[in-house]
Each structure stands twice: as C-alpha cells, then as structure tokens.
Design a protein that fits this description.
six-stranded antiparallel sheet, Pdz3 Domain, SH3 type barrels, 19 helices, elongated, 5 domains, about 550 residues, alpha+beta
C-alpha cells in the first residue's frame, strides 16, 4: 500500500485509498459500495475545498496594517508641527524620501488585496434539488477590518439573512457572500437562534471565520450637515454607518438601497464603503413618517428653508424640495484655457475687516485682480473719479435698476443709496481678471450660479479662548448685576462671536474655505496663496455648474 505522509492532502489520500479497493469474493458488495462513495464527484470537490482551506490556514497572510502610507503622512505632519530634536529630524527626513514612500505604497497595495483561496466551481450537471439545498462553506480573512455586511432576521422564516454588502469590504472583495444569503453557522457554532446583534458581535470579534451559507454610477456629494451613526436609532447597523461633517465630500458607490446608500469619504484610506442616509430617507422623515436621527440634522433642515428655488440653483438627486437639501452633488472643476476666472466672494463676521483685506490683494497685483466698482446716489467728491471709486447715478436711475434686478445687494446710508451691480462684476471678469467682492451672506443666493462659479471665503476675526473666558466669566457670578462686569470691548467680542456663529449656522453649507484672521499680514498671505490655488487646482463645485 502507498505511503501517505503528513503533507499529503485529504483529496490525494482519498484518491490513493480508492485505488487500493479491490473487491474480493467475501466482501465484494461492501467494497463496491465504498468505491462508489469515494468516487462520488461531490465528495471529491469537498476534499479539494478542505485541502485549499488547510493550505491557506497555514499561510495565514495577515498584514499588521493596511494603511501604512497614511500613518506615515500623519506622523510626518505631527513632527512638522513642533520643534524637533536630532532623532525626530532624521525620522522626518526618512519619511519624506520617495523610496520609503514607494515601499509603503507597495505594502498597502498588497495588504489591501484579496488573497482568499479560489474554490473550485460546482459542476454544471448537478441535480437541481441538490443544488437548491447545497451549503457553501465560506472562509473570510478580515485583516482586522469589519466584515462589510449587514444582516437582518427574516420575519416569515426567522432565518438570518445578509441584508447588504458594503462595497470594498472583506465580504465584497471575496465575492463569496451575496445579498439574500442565509447564515447558518459561524466557526461551527449554530446561529439560527441568536439575535442579529449577537451575531454581529461574533463577526466583529473574529479575525477569520468560516460561515455556512445557503445560497451604479459613482456620485460625489457634499454633506450639508453633520452625521453621527451612533446617535441615529434609525440606522440598520450603527457600526456600518459613516460619520461625516458638513462640507465633507462623499463618494457614493451604491444607491441600490433606496433608504441607505453606501459611500466613502474622499481622501480616506479605508477602501470599505459604509452607510449614509439617502435623500429619500430624509424626505420620508420630512413628511413625518420616520423620526429624525440626529439633532444636527434637524438644525440642518431648518436652515435649508433659507434657500429660494430658482432655475440656477443646484439640486441633489432625488431631492424634490429646495428647502430640504442635505447633500449637494458635486464634481471637480478646473478652469480651462480662455475661460473667465472664477468669482471670489468674501463674506465676513463683525470685526473681520474684509474690505481692507480685499483692497490689499488688489493693490499688490492690480493686473490680476479687480474690484467690482459700486454704484451710489451721493454727490461725487472733488478727488473721486467716475467708474473708479464709484459709479455716480441719480436716485431715479438707482431705483429703476433695483426694480430691474441689476443689483446683487444694495442699502441706504445717510439718505444715499449704495449697491453692487451684476454688470460691474461682469466688467472685471471680461477683462480676464479675478474679481473680488465682499457682500452680505444673503447675496450668495444670487451669485452662486454656473455663470460665476464663485469660490466663497468666510473671514472670521480671531477670538482667543482667554478673551472669551473673560467675557463669559460674569455669567457665573450670582451676587452682582452682570452688566457691571462688561466693558465695551467685551461687548464687541460677544457680538463678533455671535455674528460668526450666525453666519456659519445659516450659510456655512455654501462656504468653501474659512479664513481665521489672526493678524492682517498672515491673513493677506494666506488669502493670496488660496487665490492662486483656486485658479490653478481642481476644486469641488456643484455638478449643475459643469452640466449647464
């Protein structure tokens, strides 16, 4: 009889055993039965699967980390933020070398790939009844990541069903688990009587497990609200939810589920998608059929009422009401040769002094930057020139322009009217100059169109924590009247803080960049760098601006 070593696979051992079955006269019937059983193709497939899994289990290629590049970048940024000793300086230099970056990138590429064994396919001529009742043994190695699937209990049968597969997760990469599959066991433990939350905990804890299972176009959205899955009782699986902040760019990879989309934050190293509420889900909440998941989302709904519907206003897919935007579909946009520059819109809180900042930018480079000259009804002074400081017009002409919608904003000061017209903006842009305007935030409703493609900068004055503590301290003194503690400066600080908060609350979802003005010199330098970047690098803009 052939010698079988410890390295001989089970399938090979079975084949050797079958070859040694020679029916004799005494045990002919039994041996023929054994030979038929061992020669059965389905048993042979099971043995092959067993051998593959055992071989894979011995290798166990589990990387310690699958995002080494991101960790190295975070470490480099941390080192750059403070003074360095000699060892830290050497480490920073090492992390900056292209060779090490290439090695870490190659490591991450390998770590994130799927090396699960490829199991032999079932034969095409299997009996239909047998195929319907067949059980797949699926082995998944998660590499310290979530499984990437959610489960639910079928109300009719009580079976544990795979509800959705997260794009890019371990289950999706394996190709072995599908929506609608029924889970029977995990690592040999029956789960039919366990609750879905208990099963989820088992799947989270296991790094590698075996399960017995019975067998769109990418869209980018800008989030207009903060979302925390662990505060959302409506989510089907809090662990599978994607937390994000207002302004984050989300890559939606699946909209197959009308209620919960699958998405990733742009820039994240994690390849696995996670759940975000869909616009249809929020529409149902607006109609009162579902509870609102988070307080931040409720605030966002109230703020969307500031929107005014117009033909130029961007609309989110599936959002039927302009006052109910929770996402804005966006795409990357870069100026093409010969195209007019993007309009730069500055809005500011009290104390930001953005007019002074804007004028300094233009004064340093008047050939590249221009100012929309305002209109006024007051008399021209001796040193002023028509079309330079102001356009001087009569009150009747000004009121006619108001009636015809020519101004983006206007107001009255000391019985004189002042306003900025759309024509004055076009005049600067047509000269191929970058036009800077500082307006009240309400004007964004008029300017935020495909015609101008504005880049909105919110300038805030720097208010230190020490200053705020000084202002807020009297609130805790109960033995004296609070007004006796306040000075004019403290009143100003409170007003500046409240102004910034109110603008952020009502218009923050339209802001592309927040510039905190600590001092005029650094603020000017930061703004100049930003202006160059806007015209030279791709930026996220509403998709409707590019399609129109």
């Amino acid at each position: 009889m052939p010698i079988v070593s410890a390295s001989t696979g089970l399938h090979e051992t079975l084949a050797l055993l079958t070859s040694q079955l020679h029916p004799d006269a005494d045990h002919k019937e039994d041996l023929v039965f054994l030979k038929d059983v061992f020669s059965e193709r389905s048993l042979g497939y099971l043995m092959k699967i067993h051998d593959k899994l055992k071989q894979y289990e011995k290798q166990n290629p589990t990387p310690v980390l699958h995002s080494a590049s991101c960790l190295a970048e975070d470490l480099a940024e941390e080192l750059q933020s403070g003074p360095l000793d000699e060892d830290e300086r050497e480490l920073l230099l090492l992390l900056s070398t292209p060779h090490l970056k290439a090695v870490l990138s190659a490591h991450d590429t390998v770590a994130q790939k799927n090396f699960d064994p490829v199991l032999p396919p079932l034969p095409d001529d299997l009996d239909d009844d047998l195929e319907e009742e067949s059980v797949k043994i699926v082995r998944l190695v998660k590499n310290k990541e979530p499984l990437g699937a959610t489960i639910r209990r079928d109300e009719a049968s009580g079976a544990v069903i795979v509800a959705r597969i997260m794009r890019g997760g371990a289950a999706d990469r394996s190709g072995l688990v599908h929506v609608g599959d029924e889970l029977r066991e995990v690592n040999g433990n029956l789960i039919t009587h366990k609750r879905p939350d208990e099963i989820s905990q088992i799947l989270v804890r296991k790094q590698a497990f075996s399960c017995g299972i019975i067998s769109s176009e990418t869209v980018y959205l800008r989030a207009l609200f903060d979302y925390t899955p662990f505060e959302d009782k409506a989510t089907p699986c809090q662990e599978a939810g994607l937390p994000f902040k207002r302004g984050d760019i989300l890559q939606v990879v699946s909209q197959e589920d009308a209620t919960w989309w699958q998405a990733k934050r742009v820039g994240d190293c994690n390849l696995r998608a996670a759940l975000i509420p869909s616009t249809q889900f929020q529409e149902r909440m607006k109609m009162g059929s579902l509870p609102t998941p988070t307080s931040s989302l409720r605030r966002s709904f109230r703020l969307r009422k500031d929107h005014q519907s117009s033909s130029s206003e961007p609309h989110t897919p599936d959002a039927n009401h302009a006052d109910f935007l929770i996402y804005e579909e966006v795409t990357q946009y870069l100026l093409r040769p010969g195209e007019r520059p993007r309009l730069i819109v500055l809005i500011g809180a009290l104390g930001a002094r953005i007019t002074e900042l804007k004028q300094k930018v233009i004064a340093e480079n008047p050939r590249r930057y221009g100012l929309a000259v305002p209109h006024t009804t007051r008399a021209r002074k001796s040193h002023e020139r028509e079309g330079v400081e102001y356009h001087f017009i009569t009150k009747a002409a000004f009121e006619a322009d108001i009636h015809n919608g020519k101004f983006i904003e206007y107001g009255e000061y000391k019985d004189n009217l002042y306003g900025t017209s759309l024509e004055s903006i076009h005049r600067i842009l047509d000269q191929n100059k970058v036009c800077l305007v500082d307006v009240q935030p309400e004007a964004l409703k008029t300017l935020r169109t495909a015609e101008f493609k504005p880049y909105v900068i919110f300038v805030q004055p720097h208010i230190s924590h020490v200053q705020l503590d000084t202002v807020l301290l009297p609130q805790y003194c109960v033995h004296a009247h609070p007004s006796s503690f306040y000075t004019d400066q403290e009143d100003d600080l409170l007003e500046m803080k409240q102004s910034a908060e109110q603008i952020d609350k009502c218009y923050g979802h339209w802001v592309d960049y927040v510039l905190v003005k600590e001092d005029p010199v650094s603020a000017l330098a930061e703004l100049q760098v930003l202006l160059e970047r806007v015209q030279m690098e791709p930026q996220w803009v509403p998709a409707s601006w590019v399609r129109s």
